[in-house]
Amino acid sequence: MAATKATGAFLEITMKINESDRNAVAAVYSKYRQPFLETISGATSKQLLLRGDDVQVLHGFESAAEAENYLKSDLFNQDVVIELKPFFQETPEIKIYSVVG
Questions:
Q1: Which residues contact 21 (CB under 8 A, 6 or more apart)?
Q2: Per-residue pLDDT tens digits for 21-73
Q3: CB of 11 within 8 A of CB of 59?
């Protein structure tokens, strides 16, 4: 049995998306969830969160440095962003949080 990776940081990406486009955005999330978990160094989790006024993707990493590296990766910039960009109503908000304790 594989050891579970400890999450030491979260990358939160908040996107303003029209309600009519949310199914398409969810499909992009589903398409890249497993490749993210399998190929990105330090990745521990990925969840899609829906609220009335926005959509968030919460990514777990072992460290904040790995979260920052993901933002520079081809998977993020050449795949995920390219497919999501047509749905953005404004520039997404990106935050990295470190886990304490």
A1: 87
A2: 999 999 999 999 999 999 999 999 999 999 888 999 999 999 999 999 999 99
A3: yes
Rounded Cα–Cα distance for residues 88 and 99 (Å)? 28
Distances (CA, A) of 68 to 25, 37, 53, 96: 22, 15, 26, 8
How far is the C-alpha of 26 from the C-alpha of 67, rounded, in Å?
21
Please give the Cα distance from 22 to 6 (Å, whole number): 30
- Indicate the pTM of the whole model: 0.92
Q: How far apart are CA 61 and CA 11, in angstroms?
A: 8
DSSP secondary structure string, the chain? -PPPPPP-EEEEEEE-B-GGGHHHHHHHHHHHHHHHHHHSTTEEEEEEEE-SS-EEEEEEESSHHHHHHHHTSHIIIIIIHHHHGGGBSSPPEEEEEE---
